[in-house]
Design a protein that fits this description.
17 strands, about 25% strand, 11 helices, Quinone Oxidoreductase, Chain A, domain 1, Rossmann fold
């Protein structure tokens, strides 16, 4: 076993502290890489609090991980020691079901294995531990090549916030000639703006915070609507082909669907705690659709990284020390970050 160190929540809702633990030895199809940066996702906070489901503790969060290869298994030919690599939200899947065969491992019908807070029932039957740590061992299929020309701290959030917004925009073929509204301007939302603009769509940011207008326009948005201003809100009714909803706080989805054109689609990628209720009339009146999207498959995630390399796209980040994580969580809940915290793992 490989001894390493991480930051863990030992019990649900507890403060995180330094924790020594073990990774598995590098197998024939594994890659071990030393972690340089790890993004801080809102889901990290949800999971250490057991907000969604009962977690596995001690819990080492982190699924936006970049680093350099330290060791490769005997069957691994895609990577060598010293390569820049990354791993996102998944570290395994069955590879046999229809979704996996179609390159949609995130929808594995037998359950994908999350990078942390999961039991890998395909291999060693032990809990997975995430990127708030010094090193990690991952099956080579789930390791991604990180382009050398991009800023590493800015790459880390691409492996969750990036692919979570890239994938639905690609699936629904959002691009030139489409009017896209991005609901919420945070870690997910700012990436949705960057990708929407890069794909050629006319992008409007919808936010309750008028203070975000200047930032939205700087990111490339064509327009900004303060949704708590009724006059502004009403001015864009029946306006959009797509709404990409990145909001993780509870909100009235049906109200926003009134901003869609006939045949418009509201795509949810944020994960509020409370269930939403959508009146049937909201859907049938103008043949509107309510949809959702979760991450992207391995091939699509690599495609996204290569697209970012070609278009010089990274996340806007604030790099922090590991010891700052509790303050970072508090600020994240206040939406006081532009737009993603990233931990410099040298500080652990």
């Amino acid at each position: 076993m490989i001894e390493t160190k991480g930051y863990a929540a030992l019990l649900p809702g507890s403060l995180m502290n330094e924790w020594n633990f073990e990774r598995r030895e590098v197998g024939p199809n594994d890659v071990q890489f030393d972690i340089l940066y790890c993004g801080v996702c809102h889901s990290d906070l949800h999971q250490i609090r057991n907000d969604w489901f009962e977690g596995i503790f001690p819990m080492v969060p982190g699924h936006e991980i970049v680093g350099r290869v330290a060791k490769v298994g005997t069957n691994v030919s895609r990577f060598k020691i010293g390569d820049l690599v990354g791993t996102g939200c998944m570290v395994d899947s069955c590879k046999e079901c229809e979704s996996c065969r179609d390159g949609e491992e995130q929808y594995c019908e037998n359950g994908n294995i999350q990078t942390y807070n999961s039991i890998n029932h395909y291999t060693d039957k032990v809990p997975t531990y995430g990127g708030y740590s010094k090193t990690i061992v991952v099956k080579d299929d789930f390791v991604l090549r990180v382009p050398e020309n991009l800023s590493l701290p800015g790459v880390a959030p691409l492996l969750c916030a990036g692919i979570t917004t890239y994938s639905p925009l690609k699936y629904w073929k959002v691009g030139k000639g489409h009017k896209l509204a991005v609901l919420g301007l945070g870690g997910l939302g700012h990436m949705a703006v960057k990708f929407g603009v890069a794909f050629g769509a006319d992008v409007t940011v919808l936010s309750t915070s008028e203070s975000k207008r200047e930032d939205a326009l700087k990111l490339g948005a064509n327009n900004f609507i303060a949704t708590n201003d009724q006059q502004q809100f009403d001015s864009v009714k029946n306006s959009f082909d797509f709404i990409l909803d990145t909001v993780s706080a509870n909100h009235d989805i049906a109200e926003y669907m009134g901003l869609l054109k006939t045949n418009g689609t509201h795509i949810c990628v944020g994960l509020p705690n409370d269930p939403s209720q959508i009146p049937a009339f909201t859907l049938v009146s103008n043949r509107k659709s309510l949809a959702g999207s979760l991450l992207g498959g391995l091939n699509e995630t690599q495609e996204m990284l290569d697209f970012c390399s070609a278009h010089d796209i990274v996340s806007d980040v604030e790099v922090i020390d590991m010891s700052y994580i509790h303050e970072a969580f508090k600020r994240m809940e206040r939406n006081d970050v532009k737009y993603r915290f990233v931990i410099d793992m040298e500080t652990l």
